[in-house]
Amino acid sequence: MTLLEDVPLQDFNTLAIPAKAAYFADVASAEDLERILANPALASLPRLVLGGGSNIVLRGDFPGVVLHIALQGIAVEESGAERLVKVAAGENWDALVRHCLAQGWYGIENLISIPGSAGAAPIQNIGAYGVELADVLVAVRGWDLNQQQWRRLSCEQCQLGYRSSVFKGELQDRFIITEIELRLSTTASPNTRYAALSDALSGTEVVTPEAVAEAVATMRASRLPDYRQEPNAGSFFKNPIVSAERASVLQQRFPQLVSWPLADGQVKLAAAWLVEQCGWKGRRQGEVGIHPRQAIVLVNYGRTKGETVLALAGAIQSSVADQFGVSLEIEPRLY
Ligand code: FAD
Ligand code: NAP
Predict the structure, then answer these.
(1) 123 CB within 6 A, ligand 1
(2) Atom 25, ligand 1: residue with shortest CA distance
């Protein structure tokens, strides 16, 4: 493992922000991680644990050490129709989904085409098309920076919620995930409850996991900008969750409001609808803008600095707050 200095990060974040890291190391093994964490020269510096860089915004140059998680490997244990799949954190998530599908291990086909690494999947409990990581995660393994030891956390201990987990709360910046364990199955049980997905599959006679994956991949390719051409971090804002009373007041004032009731009685509002109503969809502000097809995808057209992206995000948050009294929370982590 080599410790590099003054490393450009533009190719390591999907918003293509041209920031630099003071120090940068590829972590390809548990030993690499232990070695770099034991380096006294780096001990007091901030750390950024980096996967695919598809859910971060770099506000400026990073003054500390970037630990680029590059651990590779997939192992499987069989038990009847069940497959316990252990995946090293640096594996690419989309490639993992495709690999599992090819092996006939089902359960994550709806999560195809999500950029990033396997190790980052628990951080915000990745979700799409009616499935989230919580549906299949058994446990994560990693290094606890506070306890200074290797630990295995069960799915329950990860406290996965809507785009959230213990790694965005109590264990933020305190736990480096090196492996995730998933429970998949050789028995196909396609989940087509998500309306857009069932519509896409309505003409399909026998719905297989492969058909689900293909439908999701096709929808994603047609709806979402490719970050290699139009740098972005996916959804920039979370869907706000409000009380039923608050939602009902909003619904009376704005009868077209798009929202979904949640199992716990609260209501999820469509962030994209709120942003679109404020006239932002497709708008450009210099080198940054909002995608014409996706009102909550901010695009860094000019591959410019993070503060320009965040200025646009701030302007959007202000108009949604002024018009609807709703605060939009940024989904990617800011550094
Ligand atoms: P990074 O951006 O590298 O890191 C994100 C955060 O996780 C950082 O705080 C980082 O420190 C932390 N982290 C990363 N790896 C580790 C580790 N091993 N241990 C501890 N902390 C770690 N998300 C969804 O949920 N659903 C979607 O459908 C979806 N679609 C997307 C589409 C596009 C076009 C893009 C650009 C993004 C999309 N995302 C989606 C967001 C993103 O892809 C996911 O959140 C993904 O899991 C981030 O992985 P990453 O490796 O790129 O994480
Ligand atoms: P979409 O299907 O129109 O979804 C837009 C938003 O509406 C999503 O946030 C989704 O919530 C919500 N939604 C739609 N139907 C819903 C229902 N029946 N109940 C509750 N919520 C519903 O179009 P899209 O933007 O292309 O997204 C498709 C899927 O990919 C979604 O699941 C979305 O989360 C995921 N995605 C996520 C990101 C990201 O960066 N986080 C980026 C692109 C796509 P959910 O988010 O809860 O699904």
Answers:
(1) yes
(2) 126
Q: Which of 141, 149, 161, 147 is nearest to 69 (CA)?
A: 141
User: Which ligand has the shortest distance to the CA of 262?
Assistant: 2
274 lines ligand 2 (CB under 6 A): no
Closest CA to 24 of 13, 8, 40, 37: 8
- Cα within 13 Å of Cα(262), Cβ side: 16
Q: Rounded to whole angstroms, how far apart are CA atoms 252 and 256? A: 9
Ligand 2 centroid from CA 315, angstroms: 23
pLDDT of residue 1: 80
| Residue 123, ligand 2, Cβ within 6 A | no
Whole-angstrom distance, CA of residue 33 vs CA of residue 164: 25
Ligand 2 atom nearest 129 alpha carbon: 32
Confirm or reject: Cβ of 234 under 6 Å from ligand 2: yes
- Nearest-5° Cα angle at 74, 73 to 78: 155
- Per-residue pLDDT of 244-296, as tens digits, reads 999 999 999 999 999 999 999 999 999 999 999 999 999 999 999 999 999 99
What is the model's pTM?
0.97
Has residue 326 got a pLDDT over 90?
yes
> Would you say the CB of residue 262 lies under 6 angstroms from ligand 2?
no
Among the listed residues 136, 128, 133, the one whose alpha carbon sits nearest the alpha carbon of residue 165:
133
Sheet strands side by side (includes 74-79): 74-79, 82-88, 175-185, 137-144, 149-154
Sorted by sequence, the CB contacts under 8 Å of residue 206 that are 6+ apart come out as: none
- Catalytic residue positions? 163, 235, 331
Predicted confidence (pLDDT) per residue in 111-162, tens digit: 999 999 999 999 999 999 999 999 999 999 999 999 999 999 999 999 999 9
